[in-house]
Design a protein that fits this description.
- The chain contains 5 helices and 7 strands; from the N terminus they run βααβββαβαββα.
- The protein is an alpha+beta fold.
- A 4-stranded antiparallel β-sheet has the order 1-2-3-4, sandwiched between helices. It has a 3-stranded antiparallel β-sheet with strand order 5-7-6.
- Helix 1 crosses helix 2 and helix 3 runs antiparallel to helix 5.
- It is globular, with a radius of gyration of 15 Å.
- It starts with a strand and ends in a 16-residue tail after the last helix.
- The C terminus is likely disordered.
Length: 177
């Protein structure tokens, strides 16, 4: 499995857009159009935000994650944000999400950040057991409760690099430029 930038694989933009549109846009009723999602993912970067990563194996896209400057309008003080982590159901349980998060942490650190944030409506426990710290619960414009979590990149990299709760000094790169 290889983790790479979506911007280097324009042939995967529609597929990633479909994943994100179906999982995050339709389910939240945001009103965003599919064409807007495609346009957004067609303009992600590899060295400035927003950045989208994809997990590839034998030419197939297994999952995706993005790093946004902001993913919660009412909390502009926090940045950057891990967003839209998604693994296709048939590839779950294989460490795809873990590898996507690990590479995201690498990139965030390369960009000069020491922390990364995320928002979740229903997966706080999942992230907390993986080293994320609960910060607060806020309400969005639809009055839905959103938990905001933070990860200190330098302390938690080992959890994502080598598998949950493992550490090694012989770490292999997850990604080839």
């Amino acid at each position: 499995m290889n983790i790479d930038f979506l911007s280097k694989h324009p042939d995967k933009v529609i597929e990633v857009s479909e994943m994100i549109f179906n999982e995050f846009v339709l389910k939240t009723g945001s009103g965003m159009k599919f064409e807007d999602v495609v346009k957004y993912f067609s303009n992600t970067n590899y060295n400035t935000l927003p950045i989208t990563l994809i997990a590839l194996e034998n030419g197939k896209c297994l999952g995706t994650v993005s790093i946004f400057e902001n993913d919660l309008k009412i909390r502009k003080i926090y940045k950057p944000w891990l967003a839209s982590l998604y693994t296709k159901p048939e590839y779950r349980g294989r460490g795809v999400g873990q590898k996507l998060v690990s590479k995201s942490i690498d990139i965030v650190q390369q960009l000069g950040f020491n922390e990364i944030y995320l928002r979740t409506e229903d997966a706080s426990d999942y992230y907390i057991t993986r080293g994320w710290t609960y910060l607060e619960t806020v309400s969005d414009d639809k009055h839905e409760k959103i938990d905001v979590l933070k990860l200190k990149c330098n302390l938690m990299k080992k959890f994502y690099k080598n598998g949950f709760m493992e550490s090694s000094t012989n770490e292999a790169p997850l990604f080839n430029n």
